[in-house]
Amino acid sequence: xxxxxxxxxxxxxxxxxxxxxxxxxxxxxxxxxxxxxxxxxxxxxxxxxxxxxxxxxxxxxxxxxxxxxxxxxxxxxxxxxxxxxxxxxxxxxxxxxxxxxxxxxxxxxxxxxxxxxxxxxxxxxxxxxxxxxxxxxxxxxxxxxxxxxxxxxx
Length: 154
Description:
By secondary structure, the protein is mostly helical. The chain has 2 domains: 8-85; 106-153, no CATH class. It has helices at residues 8-16, 28-33, 36-43, 50-65, 68-71, 75-85, 106-115, 121-130, 133-142, 147-153.
């Protein structure tokens, strides 16, 4: 049987309105269904103007995400942190922030990693992000790859 989750609109609405008593007022079953992690992920992103988006992202990161795993076993404390992150300007449209996809273009990642075995994953990400496909292709060609092999990677 799938685990029960609280209505997300209800949870985020309470967070947006800075309802610090929301968690205390939940039934025991609803307290078990409360997911601070999911609420954190949804809370960090809102639609609307850039200033409000920036505020939600920065405040959620600073007040909730920064030490989340240290306090994650205390759902009431997590809730209080979530409610504190809201600017209290009314209900907002929250958007899901997808997890970063690992292994995007995994063949290219493996090729770069084979040339730089001491590189960490985030360093490989940086190389692939700051260089254009043309620059990476030229580099691979300089290091002995055939043109058709480079095209297959990109």
